[in-house]
Write a structure and sequence with these properties.
The complex is a heterodimer of chains A (114) and B (112).
Chain A (H helix, E strand, L loop, with lengths): L4 E3 L2 E4 L5 E6 L4 E9 L6 E7 L2 E5 L6 E5 L5 E5 L8 E9 L8 E2 L3 E5 L1
Parallel strand pairs in A: 2-11
Antiparallel strand pairs in A: 1-3, 3-8, 4-5, 4-9, 5-6, 7-8, 9-10, 9-11
Chain B lengths: L2 E3 L4 E5 L4 E3 L2 E3 L5 E7 L5 E7 L5 E3 L5 E5 L4 E6 L8 E10 L2 E4 L3 E6 L1
Parallel strand pairs in B: 2-12
Antiparallel strand pairs in B: 1-4, 3-9, 5-6, 5-10, 7-8, 8-9, 10-11, 10-12
The chains are: A mainly beta (114), B mainly beta (112).
Chain lengths: 114, 112
């Protein structure tokens, strides 16, 4: 069984640019969430997608957006990058079915904004 | 709003010693509680979870945690720590289907 995968592993961007991060959910999982983890902190919830629609969002501005595709893969897009966007971005998927609340995380994408 | 506090930023224990990592949560209803572990440069691995029922839950790698509603706590324990347990540990509370709040983490160092 393949776990959650993310690409790329590392990324360096310049302030003001746009970035797209990708995630492939674990087989059988139909819900995907994205988190931002700044250095030395716990992950912060960005948003969640279920059936290709956003169904929950944390305290992040609209320049953070996402997509979920029919095969349950997902993208996180960040526009107008700021220095504070430098962080580890984690994707997590959740199994389909009632009563399943645990999330399974990918290895993350390390984004550096200069 | 739900929140999680991990009072200990860094803990050092000797290999073979017992371990307890503290976690306090704030949430009005019955929470869904989790412990995750993160090794350097890695994603988060689920150690254990509590949804309902028995308040003492067993997880992987010999870890267990106890839910105490009266103390709003969900502390993680291990009777004998191994050097490979050195990592960052995160407690999390899920109050709904679409949000999970994490604590700031506790970094565990294991002395030989």
């Amino acid at each position: 069984e393949t776990g959650v995968t993310q690409s790329p592993t590392h990324l360096i961007k310049t302030r003001g640019q746009q970035v797209t991060l990708r995630c492939s959910s674990q087989s059988g999982h139909n819900t995907v969430s994205w988190y931002q983890q700044a250095l030395g902190q716990g992950p912060q919830f960005i948003f969640q997608y279920y059936r290709e629609e956003e169904n929950g969002r944390g305290n992040f501005p609209p320049r953070f957006s996402g997509l979920q595709f029919p095969n349950y893969s997902s993208e996180l897009n960040v526009n107008a990058l700021e220095l504070d966007d430098s962080a580890l971005y984690l994707c997590a998927s959740r199994p389909a079915g009632a009563g399943t609340y645990e999330q399974y995380f990918g290895p993350g994408t390390r984004l550096t904004v200069t | 709003a739900q929140s999680v506090t991990q009072p200990d930023i860094h803990i050092t224990v000797s290999e073979g010693a017992s371990l307890e990592l503290r976690c306090n949560y704030s949430y009005g209803a019955t929470p869904y509680l989790f412990w995750y572990v993160q090794s350097p440069g890695q994603g988060l691995q689920l150690l254990l979870k509590y949804f309902s029922g028995d308040t003492l839950v067993q997880g992987i790698k010999g870890f267990e945690a106890e839910f105490k509603r009266s103390q709003s706590s969900f502390n993680l324990r291990k009777p004998s720590v191994h050097w490979s347990d050195a990592a960052e540990y995160f407690c999390a509370v899920g109050a709904s289907n679409n949000d999970m709040r994490f604590g700031a983490g506790t970094r565990l160092t294991v002395k030989p």
